[in-house]
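>> received
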Amino acid sequence: MSITTKDTDIKGLVTFKVGDEEFGVDILLVETIIRMMEITKVPRAPEFVEGVINLRGSIIPIIDFRKRFNMQKKDEDKDTRIIVTNVDNKQMGFIVDSVSEVLRLPVSSIEAPPAIVAGIDSEYIEGVGKLDDRLLILIDINKIFSLGEKEKIKKVYEEVK
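>> returned
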């Protein structure tokens, strides 16, 4: 059974930059976008976990997208943001260089990802969206971590809770 899409099907995205690449994540998974704040380091956390924050009474693990995707470290600046998402029914924050915009992209302009996009394995990528002269790498936030990595993040969360 195949799934067909109409030209009128639209996908809502929050777009953001990490390095020179522009990414998008499904807006339905984004809870909030906040300015960079102080992050509490957690011992024995996986390398890509920066630590945790307390956001309105909730302890949230914070992941550095640059570290997750083996990109060169960059100092935070006035544009650095944390995108708080819901991954497997758990709040998780992702540090990005900047948030670009919220946009609506026709599903018909999304193509399947090539094997490697911007040095990122395609298993994390939902597709590549074409918008005018821009290409957006659409991240599948629920597939960004392996089961083992999810367990490690869960332990970080439980240790500080």
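>> The first strand starts at residue 10 and ends at 18.
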